Amino acid sequence: MKIIPLLFLTSLLAANWAQAECDYDDFPLMPDMLVASIGSNIQWNQTPMAGRSFRVPADLAAVKNFYAEAWADEVDFSAFNGWEQILHINQQCMMMIQVKRQNDRYSYGQLVITNPPASAGATPVLGDGMPVPPGAQVISDMRSDDDIRQGRLVLLLNEEDMNTTAQWYETELKQQGWSLEQRSQQANGVVLSYSRERELMTVGLLRHQDKTQVLVNRMDR
């Protein structure tokens, strides 16, 4: 996980998007890139997003090189949860590519565009309704609601150590009626998998630079 681009993005969302607007006609596409819609009712930090999936006959290096040239100096590269991320922010919107290697010939992933809310109003608290340890900072909050599945993905930063944070989740989620299905632990990471009726929840914890990063993924079956 890498949280610096997300922190950078949060500040830009708050500061620069009073008049922003863009659509997929503005998104540069690679030659022979096959694109399909993956849903229109997505929110990132209460900001509406539109997402499309893609598959392209190119390796990861070629994908990165294409967008580095397309967006010149206005591009940021990072890695998050197994995905390579390519981020571009301008005065109109945010564009992001999440990409993985499929095989020796193809790469695949998502194209994401974010526009500002259509109207101003009360902004819900980030992470509201999700298990957030006391004192933890919510870095990002993504919702995806469609006819097939509803989901929520929250990234947190906690000052407590990894084991203390994991114990908090095991106690809190048990009290909320969640059943622990699997616990996987490595030297600097813990993954907790839960179920409750028709819902699934995965809590991933990673110790990094004296802080604990937590990724909580909640979805319908």
Describe the protein:
The protein starts with a helix and ends with a strand. With 221 residues, the chain is an alpha+beta fold. It has a 12-stranded antiparallel β-sheet. It is elongated. 17% of the residues lie in helices and 46% in strands. The protein has helices at 4-16, 60-70, 162-175, and strands at 34-44, 47-56, 76-80, 83-89, 94-101, 107-114, 137-145, 150-158, 179-185, 189-196, 199-208, 211-220. The model is unreliable at 1-20 and 116-120 (pLDDT under 50). The chain contains 3 helices and 12 strands; from the N terminus they run αββαββββββαββββ. A hairpin with a 3-residue loop joins strand 9 and strand 10 (189-196).
What's this model, at a glance?
The protein is an alpha+beta fold and 221 residues long.
In terms of topology, how is this protein built?
Blueprint lengths: L3 H13 L17 E11 L2 E10 L3 H11 L5 E5 L2 E7 L4 E8 L5 E8 L22 E9 L4 E9 L3 H14 L3 E7 L3 E8 L2 E10 L2 E10 L1
Antiparallel strand pairs: 1-2, 1-7, 2-6, 3-4, 4-5, 5-6, 7-8, 8-12, 9-10, 10-11, 11-12
